[in-house]
Amino acid sequence: MTTFLEKNEPNFIFKGLNATTDMGCIIEKELPDIQAQPSIEEISIIGRSGTLTEWYGDYKPYDLNVGAVTIPYENLEDVKRWLSGSGKFISHNDLDKVIDAAPSFSSPLKFGNEWGVFYTFDLTFRCQPLKRKVNEQSIKLYSKNTLFNPGSERSFPIFKVETSGGSLKINCNDVILTIPSMLDGAVKIDCENGLVIQNGRQLRTIGEWPEIVPGENNVSITGGYSGAKILLRSAWT
């Protein structure tokens, strides 16, 4: 996907299309590398100097300003369709990270006609705060595992388990999740959304949802299963 991105040339991929080679965009300035801002709430208390702060580990979305972009006159309608709706965004600054983003339309996107040869416009993307690894692969699990998370933030993994039924227990850094009643077949455990799905139905769970922390993680799995994989969903700000 990132074959045609060079670190020294301002460029990006959006919805799987390269801005320069696929859409004919000329980007005038270097794209910024932005770190998401923690969503910290300040609390004022009467009679006390200063403020208290609360933070629940979440981050705010942000705007990434691409700046002035020039496109060939005949590419206008293709570019309009390309920039409608949300998609995956990869910057030339960070080739192995992908962001959920959408062109920002707080004001109308204005295309200036340059003598019937080019159109120019200013482009900004509204980005979700966490970056993910491009084409991250699942890791095969054994009964006991030591896994390294390269991300800078905690993440909520996805487990995929093949089972013949019975119960399953996952211990992740001493946080335990138990699925007491499974049927025969594949089970998907989505720790971010708090869902365990098998054969199209939701299964009951006991315990807490596992988190993967930056660095080393200890994960064990016991119970009625024949194979298991984990997608770490490593995250960066």
Helices and strands in order, then pairings?
Elements: E1 12-14, E2 17-18, E3 26-27, E4 41-44, E5 51-54, E6 62-72, H1 76-82, E7 87-91, E8 97-103, E9 112-114, E10 118-127, E11 131-133, E12 139-140, E13 144-149, E14 158-172, E15 175-190, E16 195-198, E17 201-202, E18 206-207, E19 215-223, E20 227-231, E21 235-236
Antiparallel strand pairs: 1-2, 1-7, 3-6, 4-5, 6-10, 7-8, 8-10, 8-11, 9-10, 11-21, 12-20, 13-19, 14-15, 14-19, 14-20, 15-16, 15-18, 16-17
Question: In the CATH scheme, what's the topology name of the largest domain?
Answer: Elongation Factor Tu (Ef-tu), domain 3
Number of folding domains?
Answer: 2
Poorly predicted sequence stretches spanning 5 or more consecutive residues:
none
Along the chain, the helix and strand elements come as EEEEEEHEEEEEEEEEEEEEEE
Q: Please describe the biggest sheet, giving its number of strands, its sense, and whether it closes into a barrel.
A: 10 strands, antiparallel
Q: Give me the secondary-structure category.
A: mainly beta
As a percent range, the share of strand residues is: over 45%
Rounded Rg: 23 Å
- Please tally the β strands and state the result: 21
Shape call: globular
Instruction: Tell me the number of helical segments per DSSP (H or I, 4 or more residues long).
Output: 1
- CATH class of the largest domain, named Mainly Beta
Distance between the termini: 21 Å
Assign a percent range to the helix content.
under 10%
Q: Mean of residue pLDDT?
A: 91
CATH architecture level-2 label of the largest domain: Beta Barrel
Oligomeric assembly: single chain
